[in-house]
Amino acid sequence: xxxxxxxxxxxxxxxxxxxxxxxxxxxxxxxxxxxxxxxxxxxxxxxxxxxxxxxxxxxxxxxxxxxxxxxxxxxxxxxxxxxxxxxxxxxxxxxxxxxxxxxxxxxxxxxxxxxxxxxxxxxxxxxxxxxxxxxxxxxxxxxxxxxxxxxxxxxxxxxxxxxxxxxxxx
Length: 170
Hints:
By secondary structure, the chain is mainly beta. Helix content is 14%, strand content 41%. The chain has a six-stranded antiparallel β-sheet with strand order 1-2-5-12-7-10, with helices on one face. It starts with 6 loop residues before the first helix and ends with a helix.
C-alpha cells in the first residue's frame, strides 16, 4: 500500500468492497456450499441457510456501523488498522469490546456477538480505518438483518440514549 491516507481507498478497490447498509464497506468472501434446511434450524429462522458466511468489513473513522442485529452469532476478527470499539446491547446492559492488536491495552483479536443482540461499531483513532472480518453461522441472509432506530432501543436501553443517538441512523 502507498500512503496511510490512501490505504482504505486502495483496500476498497483491491478487495472489491461495496457500501454496507449499516455503514462501512464489505465483500462476502465465503458462503458454504452446504445448507441447513429451515426445519432443522431454530424457529427464529424462516428459510434455509448456508452453514456459514464470511465477509471483509472496512470501517473508516468518519463512519460507523449503526446498531443492528441478526438472527445468528457473529464473530468479528481484527485484521489491520486502528482499534474498533464494538458496542453490544443485551438484556438491558451495554457491553464494550475493543478489537485490535494491542492485547496489553485490552484489545482482542476476535469477539463474538451473540444472536439477537443489538450491536454497533466505530473506529477509535481519528483519520484512520480498520479492516476486520465477520463470520456468521448459520450463514448471513439479509432477511435476518434488522437496523435499529432510537425508538427501537430507548425503551430497554434508555440509560444509553447518548450512545444510541450517536450510533443509529434514524
